[in-house]
Amino acid sequence: MNYPESRLAGASVAGIALTLAATLVSTLGIAQTVVTSPQDSSLDEIVVVANRAPEPLSRIGNSVTVINEAAIQESQATVLSDLLVQTPGLTVARNGGVGQPTSVFIRGATSDQTVVLIDGVQLNDPSAPGGGFNFANLMTAGVSRVEILRGAQSTLYGSQAIGGVINIVTADPSKPTGGEVNAEGGSLDTGSIAGDIGGKTDVLQWRLASNWYGTSGIAAFDERLGGVQRDASQIGGGSGQLRYDITSDLQLDLRAYYTTARVDFDGYDTPTGTFGNDNEYGTTDQVLGYAGLTLKSPDRTLTNRLAFEYTNTDTRSYDPQAPANEGIPTTETFYGIGRNEREEYQGTWQFAPRYQLVFGAQHEKSTTDTFDTEYDPAPLENEASIDSGYAQLQGEVLAGLTLTAGERYDRHDVYGGHTTGQLAAAWVLNDAHTVLRSSFGQGFKAPSLYQLYSQYGNTALQPEQSHSWDAGIEQHVWDGRVILSATYFQNDSRDLIAFFDCTTPNGLCATEPFGYYANIARATAHGAELQAAVNATQELNLTANYTLTDTEDKSPDSATFGKELPRHPKEAANLAATYRWPIHLTTDVALRYGGRSFDDAANDIALGGYVLVDLRASYAFDDHLELYARVENATGKAYETAYQYGSLGRVGFAGVRASF
């Protein structure tokens, strides 16, 4: 179906499509892919997310994908979730167009079982019912790198790291003074602009950045079902960083980030309670701050870091009809203010060649202040704290064989103590042509403040728990021009927190007549991730990945026992290629497949599978100026990632990127 509002502005879809379709193209440069030269350097790729310290991929036994700056620019993605969905093991569900609530799932885990970091600062929202992070307003502007760590990772990252960790790294300045400006426009009255400026000397590094994105959007309520009004969104933000070498051994690191957004949305209107066209809108303001001191020993074998992290998320919803429909004096129907304060010490000790110990301690205090005029009779104000200690040892015990083991202890002021552990192995064989990887990890998620203290709360809740393991092989052939990999994974979760309906009397039903949260659910997920990257020639690169994720509800005595978990497609795949012409033109074609899934736990509401085709082109005048254009969903495929919510039809955009 071709949405009327998705017609290209100032250009013909057919004209752009014919230009771009002359060649095949590529999605992204994941860590396991090869570079355009015959020399294969993928195993030398340095990542931080696996060990909370820089390590080459050849020594990491966990499943990691790295999206570098070149790959981010090639993808032309403006929204980070559109970039993440191109990687193995990840799927995305969005309630409409850009700016609408967005969930990211890793290996069958829920979205709030994923830790999201930006330059080391965790982005969860304590005021959300599940305490997770909404990806709706997370843009790619200013992002130079994304590291995705799959599998349970609570040993180093604590609560919520059941599915994995997404580490977002912003750009660092690389010259005395310089910057970049990126401007883009296109369908749906969409426009965006982002810019940064920074500098670097022997002792000082600084950077300032800002961005804005606006669109008239599509109807969040699916047009095919009667959606008639566009739901616009505006997202803006800014950031600043400063690093100063006080001495050669002592460094000060200061960072701040701010995001503001306003989005119209459709929903369950009052007083009818039916889902459809609505005039409601919401705002979100998020502030992040980081201050750290890093002290290195004179021999550089021990690095100590002391840090303070702060996040504040303020979310509000408004209904212009609320005074008449709900009998309240204000149009504000909801507010949620969630705040985190974290103090952390981390040490990294290189006590012998190829042996490293990472250890640390954390204190986290989370607070929430929420009120919902429709569902909660009184405001919720409460807090909880958790103290943690962890240690992880890594060493190359034999030539090419690196082993990793770690353990963590957390003490929560409501449910008490909890211990998690992790093991991993990476074995480089056959003159670095073959790599074997395997890991086992435990994950947990502390009950959210809403689950503990709301009118449905239960202070007897225990943390959700999981065990996951994976094993894989990576093969480098044809002088490193071809890399093939296959990974099998399994994740078993228990004590999952779900709502207990008091239509069946039990426990707290005497004081909570409608129901309450309880540790009553279990789930399992297993499957495989296949990847291939081919440097066919200096000009042509091909990439592909396929993920099979078989999920199952294992909740005892549940009506949904044996059903698939909602919004978790069993199959997902990406196929892409890039061709670099001798005239400084790069063209791309990318296909994304999303398999059938269900929107509900009972598996009564099916979401059909789909294939999307994206076409992209860019022309570099020189190292400082580039023009680019793309067509997303070139065939105009109508599809859903969330029931009754619309998705973008055929849309086109063009932009310019300039650096100085």
Query: What is the tally of helical segments?
Result: 6
Question: How many beta-strand segments?
Answer: 33
The low-confidence runs, each spanning 5 or more residues with pLDDT under 50, are: 1-38
Helical amount among residues, as a percent range?
Answer: under 10%
For the record, the CATH architecture stands as: Beta Barrel
- Total number of distinct structural domains: 1
Beta-strand content estimate: over 45%
| CATH homology superfamily name | TonB-dependent receptor, beta-barrel domain
Structure notes:
It is a single chain. This protein is mainly β. It is built from six helices and 33 strands. The protein has one domain: Maltoporin, Chain A (Beta Barrel). The N terminus is likely disordered.
What keywords describe this structure?
mainly beta; 6 helices; Maltoporin, Chain A; 33 strands
Map the helices and strands.
Elements: H1 13-20, E1 46-47, E2 55-56, E3 63-67, H2 69-75, H3 80-84, E4 90-94, E5 102-106, E6 114-118, E7 121-122, E8 143-150, H4 154-157, E9 164-170, E10 178-186, E11 190-200, E12 204-215, E13 233-245, E14 250-268, E15 275-296, E16 302-318, H5 322-326, E17 332-352, E18 355-372, E19 380-398, E20 401-412, E21 416-429, E22 434-445, H6 449-453, E23 464-477, E24 482-501, E25 515-535, E26 540-553, E27 571-580, E28 585-594, E29 597-598, E30 606-607, E31 610-622, E32 625-632, E33 651-659
Parallel strand pairs: 6-9
Antiparallel strand pairs: 1-2, 3-8, 4-5, 6-7, 8-9, 10-11, 10-33, 11-12, 12-13, 13-14, 14-15, 15-16, 16-17, 17-18, 18-19, 19-20, 20-21, 21-22, 22-23, 23-24, 24-25, 25-26, 26-27, 27-28, 28-31, 29-30, 31-32, 32-33
